[in-house]
Specification:
The chain is of the alpha+beta class. The chain has 9 helices and 8 strands. Helices cover 48% and strands 16% of the residues. A 4-stranded antiparallel β-sheet has the order 2-1-3-4. It is flat, with a radius of gyration of 26 Å.
């Protein structure tokens, strides 16, 4: 049992590292080659964990080869449009100027119900409201609504809304976050000044948010959101 547990821990660490190297695509965004590699790596990892009679290193070699192959193919797809088209395919226009392209649907083996279901998942229940729809290489369907069906925006009314001053998390569980400070336009010195004014040490902070206007929201450890509202 100890050997199986150790092999599992090692393979788990290797797979996490492999996924980090391959990138952060969600499963629905995988192209065919990435999906094949993911499935094969999962199968090989299961065999390597369960077959305690085989050397662990021998089970890691195929995983390393597949990950390396995927990295090479990804590099080729970045440099060559032909390789990208062969490995990842092309986006297909399903609706053009409000008209369904039946040839494109037949090519992708999609029925009208399939297309309507994809539109409903994006909150569109009337096919006539769609101006363009594209089947992306990852399987999703992107769409653009007809001008008369689009929500009204400030630009349509010739308005310029004020900046919403998005708050960024600058302290989480007592730890300052450099990225949040940078995005909010502040630095560590500003953070120390704010905490002194609040009479709060960094390790006492549960969370602290700030926007570019300098507005902050502080929650101390042990407090609830309702306590500070």
């Amino acid at each position: 049992m100890a050997i199986v547990a150790l092999r599992t821990v090692i393979i788990y660490a290797v797979l996490v590292a492999a996924m980090r190297v391959m990138g952060k695509r969600q499963l629905g965004d995988l192209n065919p080659s990435e999906l094949v590699v993911t499935l094969l790596v999962a199968d090989m990892a299961a065999v390597a964990m369960e077959d305690t009679g085989a050397p662990l290193f021998g089970g890691l070699i195929p995983i390393a080869v597949l990950v390396s192959l995927e990295l090479l193919l990804s590099g080729a797809m970045l440099k060559s449009p032909l390789a990208e088209r062969l490995m990842g395919g092309r986006s297909v226009w399903l609706i053009v100027n409000g008209e369904l392209d039946r040839k494109a649907m037949k090519k992708l083996r999609l029925t009208v119900d399939d297309v309507l279901s994809a539109l409903r998942q994006q909150g569109v229940f009337n096919l006539q409201d769609v101006q363009y729809a594209v089947a992306e290489t990852g399987g999703q369907i992107s769409l653009s609504l007809q001008p008369t069906a689009r929500p009204v925006t400030p630009a349509d009314l010739h308005l310029t809304p004020p900046d919403d001053d998005t708050p960024f998390l600058v302290v989480s569980d007592g730890k300052p976050l450099p990225l949040g400070l940078s995005l909010s336009g502040h630095d560590v010195q500003w953070l120390h000044r704010v905490l002194r004014e609040e009479r709060c040490a960094p390790e006492e902070v549960f969370l602290l948010t700030a926007d570019r206007g300098g507005r902050t929201h502080l929650i101390r450890k042990g407090e609830t959101v309702s306590d500070v509202l």
